[in-house]
Design brief:
six-stranded parallel β-sheet; alpha/beta; Rossmann fold; about 30% helix
């Protein structure tokens, strides 16, 4: 597909890299000459220097024949103007990055008025992921499928865990929960395991199941689970505002620390239910005075990766059981690799969301295209949700009789709002939502999971 990306910043660059790897023709627009030069040198994409709100620049980039235009500049208004202009010029689908909390409630209106196919809000999606993680403190990351009916989370097996030395069949028998291990990362290797796979301490598992089954599993494996009741947040960003609201809905108290007096005054109006402190959270005396030793979780949301990582390390030394850290640079991702540490890059969340959208558009088929996509194991594996349509080759055939391609695992089926962890006798029906795990890039639509006719 021919895709134009307006804005070559952190999100635009990662998005261009991801979509180019999927084989699409990418044109990147940015008004900064240095940014465009970097992209031209490092990516196999067409680069266009200019303003994405200028119709002449959009024409030069080929908006008149574009399949998709994605406006992901730093300005919400510029993104909406760019998307509107591209739509008028002939782009088939348009996507806009909109970050301002004031626009969140207007998403439906914006889509209709501007003709947007999709509105993405990185900070809101980022905040939702953090709130999900804080519901499962043992997890490193939590994602959802089928509007929350199914969750997939990353969990590192700690030293002394009863899981150590058990095969997956033994795990299923001993703990009697409807949770499926879909991926195991061990060192630099990632595998989609079979029942005879033996788990070891230090393995990172991608677990799939319903929320209540996940809770049962962790209670059975670890005994009493930490319940997050109070959270300390460093950095009063937009994501902080979204997160504070989400946590307040869950009955979790929030303390926010920010250096800027002006921003603290704004936060007092935006999140009146939170405790807002003006101070430098990188200073240990500030954290100690505000109660870091009694916090259940510490979330670092500043724009400085170094400050976030180092302060989270200090929080761990103070006994905080759960830390969540925002990072922008990929090479920092392994620096906090403890059992209860989570490092999240907002730009990766957006790139993943938009990659799934593009794959759904480019491979739409009556028998079932991608609805949701999550990348696992550092991008080596994908978990995809398909809505099964008429013409899907898997309909009506017991899973044990399907000729699945090597590495493909049908991990869950959502039918009528109920989640099934399938076995060999399970039969997929039209209208089901099937969650399938496979090596990255293997599946474009649901028929790709089988070897030809079944």
């Amino acid at each position: 597909m021919k895709i134009i990306i307006a804005g070559a910043g952190r999100v635009g660059y990662v998005l261009a890299e991801s979509l180019e790897a999927e084989g699409h023709d990418i044109t990147l627009i940015d008004r900064n000459a240095d940014t465009i030069e970097r992209a031209a040198n490092e990516l196999d994409v067409i680069c266009c220097l200019g303003s994405a709100t200028n119709p002449d620049t959009l024409r030069e980039a080929g908006a008149e024949s574009a399949d998709i235009l994605m406006a992901v500049t730093e300005s919400d208004e510029a993104n909406m103007i760019c998307a509107l202009a591209a739509r008028r010029l002939g782009a088939k689908y348009t996507v806009a990055r909109v970050r301002n909390p004031e626009y969140l409630a207007q998403t439906g209106f914006l889509r209709e008025a501007i003709g947007l196919s999709l509105v993405v809000n990185p900070e809101y999606e980022f905040a939702k992921e953090i709130s999900r993680i804080l519901r499962f403190p043992s997890a490193v990351r939590v994602e959802t499928f089928s509007k929350g009916s199914v969750e997939i989370l990353d969990y590192r097996v700690p030293e002394g865990s009863p899981l150590n030395g058990l095969t997956l069949r033994e795990v299923a028998k001993r703990f009697d929960t409807k949770v499926l291990v879909t991926v195991v990362e061990r060192g630099t290797e990632a595998s989609i395991p079979h029942g005879d796979f033996t788990l070891r301490s230090g393995d990172k598992l991608s677990l799939l199941g319903e929320s209540r089954e996940m809770r049962r599993f962790f209670s059975a494996v670890s005994g009493k689970q930490l319940r997050i009741k109070n959270v300390m947040v460093m950095g009063g960003s937009r994501a902080c505002v979204y997160l504070a609201d989400l946590l307040e809905e869950s009955g979790i108290s929030v303390t926010v620390i920010d250096r800027s007096r002006e921003r603290c005054d704004e936060l007092c109006d935006l999140i009146p239910h939170a405790r807002v402190i003006c101070g430098d959270a990188t200073q240990d005396e500030v954290l100690l005075e505000e109660g870091i030793r009694t916090a259940d979780a510490f979330v670092a949301l500043t724009g400085d990766d170094g400050d976030n990582i180092v302060t989270a390390m200090y929080a761990k030394r103070c006994g905080v059981p759960k830390t969540v850290v925002k990072v922008n640079m990929r090479h920092f991702s392994g620096m906090l690799d403890g059992e209860n540490d989570s490092m999240i890059a907002p730009k990766e969340i957006v790139a993943q969301q938009l990659t799934g959208f593009v794959r759904a558009i480019s491979n739409s088929a009556d028998w079932g295209s991608v609805e949701t996509l999550h990348k696992l194991a550092g991008g080596k594996v994908e978990a995809l949700e398909f809505q099964v349509g008429e013409g899907a080759r898997c309909i009506g055939i017991p899973l044990c009789d399907l000729k699945l391609r090597r590495g493909v695992l049908i991990s869950a089926i959502v039918r009528g709002g109920k989640t099934l962890i399938p076995n060999g006798l399970t039969v997929i029906e039209k209208g089901d939502h099937a969650v399938v795990v496979a090596p990255a890039g293997m599946l474009k639509d649901i028929n790709d999971m089988t070897d030809g006719e079944t």
